Amino acid sequence: MKRKIYIVLMKVLMLISIFVTAALLFFLLGYVFVKGIPNISWEFLTTKPSYISGKIGILPDILNTVYIVLATIVLVLPLGVGAAIYLTEYAKNKKVSMAIEYACEILSGIPSVIFGLVGMLLFSNNFGTCLLAGALTLVIMNLPTIMRTTQESLKTVPQSLREGAFGLGAGKWRVIRTVVLPNCVDGIITGCILSVGRVLSESAALLFTAGFAHIIDGVASALVSPGATLTVALYVYAKEEGEFGVAFAIAAILIILTLIINFSADMVGKYFEKRRSL
């Protein structure tokens, strides 16, 4: 009887936990969407701020966000994938590998404001306050994510595939390039998508390194100029200018982008899982 009461009590507590979590999520989404979506318009999305007319547009912030995402992914992807391949396939000293993996775990737990401070000292002092300095800072922040997801994917490739390729006379790099990487591409893509989500949501590090400018530039000129991403623009409009309607509109856009990114990561994982099972 006591065991039955215990089981029922645990089920009730779990249901309450699920309900509270779901209620908080839907309340947050509903509150932001109700406050933000009415302030979103085509003009709002496709123009830049005009201090003469007083109109506010976020096109420069959208472009800056795209630029910094592309720059970060282009830099972090080869570094993270290369480090994961070395640690999984080449490194022979397990203690050194464990030390590097432990360092990456610590790196992923450091608060982003510390990355911003370090990025300001290392990159902003050398390149100036610009999107490139922000992208380099985000590379350091996202390196553990890419590396760990790639490592876990590499470990899921059956050893028999490697041994079969070696038995056919293939070299180490050829086996990795033609056998291992094609069978773990889902983990690499998933890690890349998750990194994009983290770049989109980052603000503290960019406040120190990328700046606050709302200027439309080309890719090359934008990377060496100050620029506000969507998250930084949200902070500026809410904290500095008191434009809470604009801030909620940007928040709604960011939530929609985050939902799309999470959905994409889930769909990519299911697609490659189904492809492997065929």
Describe what is shown at a glance.
The chain has 278 residues and is mainly α. It contains 13 helices and no strands.
Q: Topology, pairings included?
A:
Layout: H1 2-36, H2 42-46, H3 59-90, H4 94-109, H5 112-127, H6 131-156, H7 159-167, H8 172-183, H9 185-201, H10 204-209, H11 219-223, H12 230-240, H13 244-277
Which key features would you list for this structure?
278 residues, mainly alpha, 13 helices, 0% strand
Description:
This protein has about 280 residues and is mainly alpha-helical. The chain is built from 13 helices and no strands. The longest helix is centred in the first third of the chain and has 35 residues, at about 1-35. It is globular and about 70 Å long. The model has no long low-confidence stretch (mean pLDDT about 85).
Q: What separation lies between the terminal Cα atoms?
A: 48 Å
Indicate the radius of gyration in whole angstroms: 23 Å
Number of strands: 0
Strand-pairing-aware structural class: mainly alpha
Low-confidence stretches: none
